[in-house]
Each structure stands twice: as C-alpha cells, then as structure tokens.
Request: fold
Amino acid sequence: MKISSSPFVFNTTPSIVFEAGAATRLGAISVSRLGRRVLLVTDPGLRKLGLADPAIKSLEEAGAKVTLFDEVEADPSRETLERAVEAGRRAQATGVVGFGGGSSLDVAKLASLLLGSNEDLDEAWGVGQAKGPRLPLVLVPTTAGTGSEVTPVSIITVGAEEKRGVSSPVILPDIAILDARLTLGLPPAITAATGVDAMVHAIEAYASKSANNNPLSKMLARQALQLLGANIETAVFDGGNEEARGAMLLGSMLAGQAFANSPVAAVHALAYPIGGTFHVPHGLSNALVLPHVLRFNAPDAAHLYAEIARDAFPHLDEGEGAQALCSAFIEELAALSRRLEMPTRLREVGIGEEHLPKLASEAMKQQRLLVNNPRDVREEDAAAIYRAAW
Ligand SMILES: [Zn+2]
Reply:
C-alpha cells in the first residue's frame, strides 16, 4: 500500500474511558491525577437534575474535597470564566473537572489553564498562543455532539456577542470520560441537532482542504459516520436506548478527534452567523445549511463525498459512480433532517429574507474556516447558499 508522505501533526486526549456508568466511578478513575482539591464546573440545569451528584460523591469517597461551580450558561461569558477561576483560586484547586455540555467543558478547559499558569487570557486567544501549564483536567460530556472532550478549543463570549477562541493542545484534557447513561435523558430535539453536528464534523474533516488533513482524521471520520448514521434515529426516537446513546457518544468523540486535527469548513462558517445573530442552536444551524453547502461543494468534492456516502447510509448503491453517489448522499442527509423532525428552512427559525445579505457578509468573516473548504466560497456564493436554504 502506498502512503501519502505529506507531513501532519495529530493531537488528542491521551486517556479515554468509554463505559456506561463510568461517571459514578469518577473518583476512582481520576483522583490520582486531579489531586485532593477538585473544582467541578457544570451548569445550573444539570445541577438541578442531580446528574453530577454520583460523580461528586465518588470524588469525595476517593478523598477529594470538591468545590462546585455550577453557573455556566449557554455561550459562556468571560465573566463566568473569571468567576470559575476565582472559585478555584479560593479553594486552592489541584485539578479541574468539566461536567456537562460543550459550554461547561469550554469553561473548565480555560479555568484549568488560568489556574495552572496564571496566564493572561488576553495573550492566550488565537491558535497556539496558550502556553500553560494547566492544572490536571478531566472532561465528562453529557451531550453527544461537540466532541469538546477531544478538541483543543474553547470558545468564550466577550462583551455583548463577540466570540473568541483559544486553540492550543495545552487545553486538551488528561482524561475524557464517556458515560452514555449521562445522555439518556436528553430531549429528542437536542439529540437530533447535536447528532447532526457530529456528522457535519466528520464530513467536513474528511473533505477538509487543510494542509493538516491526515490519514488518522480520515479513518476516524469514516468510523464516526458509521456509528452516527446507524444510531441517530434510534437515539432521537428511543432516547432510553443505552446502546444507541453509547454509539452516538463514541461517534461524536471520533468525529471530534478527526476535526480537531483536520478542521471544519464552510458548513460551520455559514452556520455561525445563524447561531450568533438569531440564537439558533449550533447543531440546528449546521443542519439548516448542510445540504446546500454540500451541493455547492459537489463540483470539487463529489469524489470525497462519494467515498463516505455508504459509511453514513450503507443502503446506497455504490455501482452508480461518484457523481450519483455524491448526489444520493446529499439527498439522504436532507431527508435525515426531515425524518428527525428538525426545521429544514431558515424561514422556519425566524430568519426573514431581508437578513440573508447580512448573513452572507458575516460568513465571510469566518476565513479561518473557509480556507478549509474544498471549493472557494465568495460572498455571492454564500448569499446564494443562504437563499437556497431559506
Ligand atoms: Zn460543530
């Protein structure tokens, strides 16, 4: 077999525990790494549900004193992060646990960095700027989608609505704990949106034009699509199905490993302005533009989409050639959103036609993502894609 000799770097979380019920053993699994004074970062909703209680109890049984910070909101602010750091300082935390959705994990990542290094946050924004060291860090996701437990990225809202990111391997955690039982109660709409987001991570990582696209990311993206494609409908319509939930959690992590090293592109670039301006959840924003961006990309990426089409949808006929397989793949993705009962048009989520030009100009600001797209996207292209999605 001939291998590509293109250079690449691949970073991921060094220790991954995949086990239903693992969160109830959080202390036994991680106290030797975290030390005796643990800052646990979560959100008020999970706190109220008591979802973190067994994990906290197990940390205490393992001899740790737990300081709970449960104030993380959706799109977490810099002030929230600073309060989490302050709580950790007061407690002289020796380690940090992030427990929750992407927002709690993002706050935990940067709290561990700022507590461990006293770094100035304003010098850590951007790619490769954060130096560390950070405090020991364990992440426990309670949704299946972001893959945040294996990505080196944290996004924080600064001021009214500016999103800033820190991207550095320093904030990859020491341990990711994937416990499907934590996701059993997620409502269908969230399961659908986050699940489609994970599929987008895999698709965009696979087709990414990034110079760092690599054989590991490609392999992981394909395995992710197999798991996500086969299980998303069961997870949405039979949420208590632990096996399907486990497959979604694993699939979203594999997709996270893929795109952490072979970054996403125009689907995300066009989704961000929808989320930012109209507060549409991230996964749904992606789903709304997904088929339209892929149709736009098809002239340059049909062979790539054809390669992964049958991973997500094994019933598709490979005998028909790359073009036909690519088209069938895109139609299957559109049909999947409908079957999952997600809105499929921008007008259904409160976006008026008059907003489309603004969305297109906002999308152009996402050049860090657009450079990874298999086909060049100009502003008029973005406008046409939004129009098709409207
Ligand atoms: Zn995403």
In short: The pocket of zinc ion is lined by residues 197, 200-201, 268, 282, 286 (CB under 6 Å).
